[in-house]
């Protein structure tokens, strides 16, 4: 699904906005995040230079995180007060909390590893949601998430520009 979503952005925004803006937007979107941004930026797709793509993806991925950490519980509380939105919010909370054991146990390091290892269902958005639901303070959560995004950036740069770029580029 994430590959199809990434292609949707490339196809629908291509020719209308710059390649760098496409990469930035993809990096901000939940599910895709930095991983999708760096894949999209790589040689097989948009072919954005690595030295430009990496900071664009990091900034794009981190931009929504303070808002999630500071506001999501209030937004979810409001949404749970509506009959139509309550089931969706409860499903999101349940899904996020099902991945929270190591974050709850190790807090900073658990959050950093959760965000930093680019696997399906992990990333800055989910990490920020879990941190907010667990009540981890912003001063601890944001640096862990930021370092996790940097770690994921290193891993995805090697994959996107090294391995995948070498095969398809």
Record field, number of beta strands: 0
Largest sheet: none
Structural class: mainly alpha
How many domains? The number is 2
Query: How much strand?
Result: under 5%
Short description:
The chain is mostly helical and 169 residues long.
Task: Record keyword descriptors for this entry.
169 residues; mainly alpha; 2 domains; 76% helix; 0% strand; globular
Describe the structure.
With 169 residues, the protein is mainly alpha-helical. The protein has 2 domains: 2-62 and 153-168, no CATH class; 65-150, no CATH class. 76% of the residues lie in helices and 0% in strands. The chain has helices spanning 2-13, 19-28, 33-41, 50-62, 65-80, 86-97, 101-106, 108-116, 124-134, 138-168. Helix 2 (19-28) packs parallel to helix 4 (50-62), helix 3 (33-41) packs antiparallel against helix 4 and helix 5 (65-80) packs across helix 9. The two termini are 22 Å apart. The mean pLDDT is 94. Keywords: Membrane, Transmembrane, Transmembrane helix.
What layout of secondary structure does this protein have?
Layout: H1 2-13, H2 19-28, H3 33-41, H4 50-62, H5 65-80, H6 86-97, H7 101-106, H8 108-116, H9 124-134, H10 138-168
């Amino acid at each position: 699904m994430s590959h199809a979503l990434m292609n949707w952005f490339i196809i629908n925004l291509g020719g209308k906005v710059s390649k760098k803006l496409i990469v930035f937007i993809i990096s901000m979107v939940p599910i895709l995040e930095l991983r999708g941004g760096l894949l999209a930026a790589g040689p097989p797709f948009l072919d954005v230079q690595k030295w430009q793509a990496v900071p664009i993806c990091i900034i794009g991925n981190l931009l929504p995180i303070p808002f999630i950490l500071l506001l999501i519980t209030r937004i979810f509380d409001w949404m749970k007060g509506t009959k139509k939105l309550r089931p969706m919010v409860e499903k999101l909370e349940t899904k996020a909390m099902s991945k929270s054991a190591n974050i709850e146990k190790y807090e900073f390091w658990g959050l950093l590893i959760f965000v930093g290892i680019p696997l399906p269902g992990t990333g800055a958005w989910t990490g920020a949601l879990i941190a907010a639901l667990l009540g981890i303070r912003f001063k601890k959560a944001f640096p862990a998430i930021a370092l996790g995004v940097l770690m994921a950036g290193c891993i995805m740069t090697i994959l996107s520009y090294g391995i995948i770029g070498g095969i398809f580029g």
